Amino acid sequence: MRILIVRKSAVAACLAVVLTLPVSAQDSGLPDPAALERLANKKPGYSPYAGRDFPTRPLFGDTHVHTSASFDAGAFGTTLGPGDAYRFARGDEVTSNSGQRVKLSRPLDFLVVTDHSDNMGFFPDLMAGKQSILANRTGRKWYDMVKAGRGADVGIEAFFALFQGTYPKELMYNPGTRGFRRTWEANIAAAEQYNDPGRFTAFIGYEWSASFQGNNLHRNGNLSNGLMFPMIEAFGKKLNCDYVEQRARWERLIEVTQT
């Protein structure tokens, strides 16, 4: 059964139009079809969406998510990978590294797993006690610290070593290295597996962070001591129209807060 719902005002208007139309001798009092067609073509049809140029269906997602492959998240105890993140985002139930069963009240529409580009994949190998890591003196020290429950201390120590230039080269997981390449390919595979066009979008992405003298410039949050959004000059150069136009072009979105 089909039900048509119209507004009372629309019904009244239609009745008024019908009553004013000429009546032919052959239709026993019904409106002239030709007159109805002329009236219909005289004015454009009514549509509530005509003229709208703004989106009417907001989509919800997250563009800043780290897994165990990230330098910081792995150090602080994260053991779940990209596949777990995508499954959780689309509404599946997962078990966190704390042993808790968790599930979103409303699935997200999209997700980007943005593991850090620097040393992507190092911490899972450290946690697993990979021999190439344990063969390095610093790697063995960090492994022992992690096993002693001091993973957070390892994360902080490794972070400062990385940005101070004292991080052991043998432990670097840079683009082109086997460990980095294996991790990046796994992230891509997870996004391809869980991408479901029309229902859930799994974006392929990563986070690259610039750090000037320890001040974070990763473009999602402002832990930069004012360097992220300068008022007068940027790195010794006066702000000008070109600077403003470049930022407006390439940085259309800024993450306001994170947790």
- Average pLDDT, rounded to a whole number, is 83
How big is the Rg? 30 Å
Helix content: 25-40%
Shape: extended
What distinguishing features does this structure have?
259 residues; alpha/beta; two-stranded antiparallel ribbon; 10 helices; 10% strand; extended
Describe the structure.
With 259 residues, the protein is α/β, with parallel strands linked by helices. The protein contains 10 helices and 9 strands. The protein has helices spanning 8-20, 33-42, 71-75, 82-89, 122-127, 131-134, 137-147, 151-163, 178-194, 241-250; strands spanning 61-65, 94-95, 101-102, 110-113, 201-204, 210-212, 215-217, 233-234, 237-238. The two termini are 50 Å apart. 20% of the residues are buried.
List the helices and strands and how they pair.
Elements: H1 8-20, H2 33-42, E1 61-65, H3 71-75, H4 82-89, E2 94-95, E3 101-102, E4 110-113, H5 122-127, H6 131-134, H7 137-147, H8 151-163, H9 178-194, E5 201-204, E6 210-212, E7 215-217, E8 233-234, E9 237-238, H10 241-250
Parallel strand pairs: 1-4, 4-5
Antiparallel strand pairs: 2-3, 6-7, 8-9
Helix pairs in contact: 4-9, 7-8
Q: Brief overview, please?
A:
By secondary structure, this protein is an alpha/beta fold.
